[in-house]
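Q: Predict the bound structure with magnesium ion.
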Amino acid sequence: MSIAAEELGEVYEKKVLDKLSDAVIGGFVKIAETLRPGWYRRNKSRVDEWRLMAYAFNRSPPGIIGMLLVLGFVLVALVGPYVAPFRYDTPLQFFDQNSYLAPPGTVISVPNSTLAQNFGIKPGNYTLLLGGDDYGRDLWSRILYGARTSFVVAILVMMVGPWIGIAIGLIAGYYGGKIDELLMRITDVFLAFPGLILAIAFSAVLPPRISAFLESHATIRSLLLTLFALEEQHAGAMAYLVSVVVALWLVWWPGYARLVRGSVLSARENLYVEAARALGVPTRWIMIRHILPNILGPVLVYLTLDFGGVILTEAGLSFLGVGAVPPIADWGRIVYDGANFFPNAWWLVFFPGLATLLAVLGFNLIGDTLRDVLDPKTRRSLEFKLKKREEVVEGE
Amino acid sequence: MSSCDPIIEVKNLYVNFYTYAGVVKAIDGVSFRICRGETYCLVGETGCGKSVTAKSLTRLIRSPGRIEKGSVIYYRDGKPVDLLKLGEEELRGIRGAEISYIFQDPSSSLDPLYTIGYQVAETMKEHGRVASIKEGIRRAVDILRTVLMPDPETRVKNYPHELSGGMKQRGVIGISLSNKPRLVIADEPTTALDATVQDQIMDLLKKLKAEEDLTVLLITHNMGLVADMCDRVAVMYAGRIVEEADVFELFANPKHPYTQALLRAVPNPMKRMDKLESIPGTVPNLIFPPSGCRFHPRCPFAMDICSRERPPDLEVAPGHRVACWLYTEHGGR
Amino acid sequence: MAELKRFLIRRLITFIPTLIGVTFIVFVIAAVIPANPAKMWAGGEKARPEVVERIKKEYHLEDDILTQYYFVMTKLLKNEMVSPVTQHYIWDDLKMYFPVTFQLTIIAFFFIIAIGIPLGIVAALYRDSVVDTAIRILALTGVSTPIFWLAYLMIFLFFTRLHWITLAGTPTPPYSITGIPLIDAILKGDLDMLSQILARFGLPGFILGFAGIGVTARIVRNSFLDSMSADFTEYAMARGLTKMRIYMHVLKNAMVPIVTVLGLMFGGLLGGAPITETVFGIPGLGRYMLQAIRNFDYLALVGSVFFVALIYLIANLIVDILYAFIDPRVRY
Ligand SMILES: Nc1ncnc2c1ncn2[C@@H]1O[C@H](COP(=O)(O)OP(=O)(O)OP(=O)(O)O)[C@@H](O)[C@H]1O
Ligand SMILES: [Mg+2]
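A: Predicted complex:
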């Protein structure tokens, strides 16, 4: 299956990144083609469009920086727990008093002991790269684990919350009338006060119920423990994290409901939807096949931006003490606990906050660039920069 | 067509737009002259550069557009000044006072957040014709009356959205006349209005022209209007003037193949015609305009030279110019 | 004027269902999900059964949810509701904490307007330049920054290092006109009080508004550009108006979308209050709510949420009124 990237290649001067994005899109096309032969022929114009968008994206420095930050974040989240020098809950203070609130770069020595073996530490000298906290836990390791925590929370939230909103928006926009009225009234109520406060309330009341649920569902519990990279004995603490996830599901939908409903209302006017309806295509099929793809652009932008938003909100909740609880490594919680020793142990506040900032910034940079790339008005400007030099000069 | 006392003279004007798709060569060497007291018409298909020409006269071209070269000589009380070289503040004093505009769509020309009276008044105040906005609004009532706005005393306090399309355009005309201009540039003043209102507005313009001793540059693609209003006509095609003549001469004796096609494509007010023909081919893309004569790809009489060289301006009869190779030794006509 | 009055009344009536909805949702979350609030109020596991029983009676905890809700709301609004945890009249507490948060929000809003709008205009005037890009990056950084982190960095700079600000106390003037110290001090022209208030609330206000500054700058930039390229702006040039006057037209037209966003933002600022107030130790509504949530004091929580939602709705109402003043096309 060859992809006619060459046709586009004639007009555009390609960079390494373009080849990379071509390869990714090509791979996707190949998969789609094997699953449904003839897919590429039917969707060629769409694929070409994607490729152009990718080229435009590749030429936006903020977009690339965002991509690097996000890739870094995801990489750390995936491998962090395996490469971290210590486990997130290792109280090094038991081995070396110096690790208590140790400034960055402190060297400690761990003697041989059964306790050390329990925590899987070999005896020897270690440098605490970013310092230690009030239990002598290694901040660097905890930040690595913290990336996993943020990432998993964000993924879990984004897998459900926005889709509740999208479903509500689709239903409200498509059916209109009384259903629309009712759903939008409810949405308005949720929008009428800050989501953070509602999330705080939910996260505060949910843990006992979640805890009970996790106790009775062993498979889910162990799956979540693996996802969060937590030890078996911290399942109780994990209930608080899961509560945050559920709380954010419940507050992260109203914006999407509004957005999607608006787009559906305008998409509904479109001829192809009218035609499909006239032909008696089932409603569910019309929504999934004809309306959803057309509103995917703005939704994608929001999903990207909100991925960062969830990370930030989760950190905020943990900072307020209603999210993660010790000994779970969580960026917001590390700041919350470390703030007691501020400004003397400034590293406990500075580094986790910086990590949060960088991760969230990455998503925001990507989202903002995507918005430009998806907006036909600004995309033309990006495409112009993309055209080969000569063509522009010749036009002079 | 005896003597011409010129009010404005455009020489060799070039305007480009630097867009993302490429450089649009919108105006490519346009020259013409408008005599005092006449109505001069600019006609042509959509996108041929009529509005850009009109706006270039007082440098209203905004980014990404740029006036590349040429001159616009304005005879101010007999003294020539080049508007393209004039200082910004001096030019501002001319805009809206000595040379004023009426744009195509009155709904978007007016600021929706201010009353029509305020906008008339502010145009006068900015040119020192009245001392205050208040006085301006009082004067605006009279102005609205001269442009036949019904019930001007109340209308003066209305916001644009409270007026009908015709009333809005009367308001815009009122603004353009408020400072007693010498030259009024009316860019398709009736395109956005319905047919009956169109006639009323054109009648109004005719009446005002007679009363106020105006010179008018009228832009339109309505040949009926041309016949009705104009003294002399210039036909534009793809950023160039291809033919210019006295209105009777042009309808009776069109020379340029494009003018001929254009007159066959619209009901000719001066001749009975059996059927209308559309002009074959499409308007060229001005980023990559055709070489030589820009009309040659659509021209039924195209010759070799047409695609190679730009045709010269020829005076085929007194006051009748045409830019076409057919009337040179190459064409042998 | 009569029209305005009718509009206000109509809008105020639409507040009621929203307020009921908001408080009811919070009530359900806080009253129904936790297992046994009476026991917790009575002191947790060690609670004496008769005390628990008394509390259950007193707060109608055994009734069905609608009755409970009705009971809570009527008592709250009549200021007859005493918190089972703090033993204070809840409404009195709210009246004490609310002005503090409101004052903080006003200061944050001031920063948003005073910095965000000029930045946006500058970005529009120098569009696609380095300045524009810098403002874009700043805006994105603003919404990406954890405000608690920024708060600590600023405390380190302005408190620990420079000693410019104070971190304790709530300056309260001896007089009261509106009940909001900041506004009272301005009304009285009491500069000494004002500087005390700013020393205490200036930085928290800035931090609270930080994310909004960038967002506002972006919105201002875009709507300013839209209105610069509008036809009426071109016609204003053709009329020979001076630059100043053209900008007046552009700015007024750009205000229409800006006002909407600012209105929404004002309500949203209240949501950031818990974090800011926690970092700076400000005794405001945000901390009060946090405290209430931690103590399972859902009565206090419902009361606070009522306030927050009310402010949010009022902010929207003010936006609508401003709208009608700016834009004659909008009718009451
Ligand atoms: N702001 C702009 N950006 C890019 N190109 C422009 C711009 N304004 C005008 N042009 C180009 O200049 C050319 C002439 O446009 P102009 O508006 O003068 O046409 P016109 O003859 O007035 O047409 P119409 O009859 O539709 O008003 C067009 O090809 C158009 O594409
Ligand atoms: Mg035009």
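A: DSSP finds 19 helices and two strands in chain A.
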